[in-house]
Amino acid sequence: MRFRLALLALLALLAACGPAVDREGSLTRLRAALEAEVSDASVLEGHNQLAEEVSRGGVLEGMFQHELAARLGRGQSCGANGLCARRDFRATDWIYEIGHAPGDPDLPAGPTLIVGFDSTGRVDRTFYLTRRTPLPPR
After folding, report:
1. Against a cut of 0.90, is the pTM above it?
2. CA–CA separation, 68 and 79 (whole Å)
3. Distance CA 82, CA 61 (A)
4. Helices (H) and strands (E) in the chain, counts
5. Residues in Cβ contact with 103 at an 8 Å cutoff, skipping those fewer than 6 apart
6. Percentages helix, strand, coil for the chain, rounded to the nearest 5?
7. What radius of gyration do the chain's Cα atoms show?
8. Residue 6 and residue 58: Cα distance in Å, rounded?
9. Burial level of 23, CB count in 10 A (0-12/13-18/19+)?
10. Strand partners, 116
């Protein structure tokens, strides 16, 4: 009887956790999205979903800064960024803008992903902010 209860509890816990996030696939898609033009609402929504998946799924958790830089490129330092400050990220943490405006690779047009590091340089938390309206072409 105890075994059955323990097994049922374990199965319930596993079912509640849902499917595991594909780390490699998510990193590959994120790398491509960082450079992608946000041409319409469907592209924007895909980027928003990807940012949520990466953050909530813990895709970056435990990676070292050098590993993250090798996979995605180095993010911009949070520095004095207001969003980083409001979310209690440090100036040395990184921020990624996912996607850019049509015709302007320097103008962010997708969601924002902030990556925080612990004292050993490992990712210990992330935050994302979605964007709901695509920018018009320039």
Report:
1. no
2. 18
3. 23
4. 5, 6
5. 37, 137, 138
6. 40, 20, 35
7. 18
8. 27
9. middle
10. 125
Per-position b or e across 48-61, b if 16+ CB within 10 A of its CB: bebbebbbebebbe
pLDDT digit of tens for each residue in the chain (138 aa)?
A: 555 544 445 444 544 454 467 999 999 999 999 999 999 999 999 999 999 999 999 999 999 999 999 999 999 999 989 999 999 999 999 999 999 999 898 899 999 999 999 999 999 999 999 998 766 665
In angstroms, the CA 43 to CA 100 distance is 11
Alpha helices in 41-134 (DSSP H): 41-56, 65-72, 82-86
Instruction: Record the tokens describing residue 41, joined without a space.
Output: 């609402």
Dihedral over alpha carbons 90, 93, 99, 103 (to 10 degrees)? 80
Q: Which residue shows structure tokens 């309206």? A: 133
DSSP string spanning 9-33? HHHHHHHHH-SPP-HHHHHHHHHHH
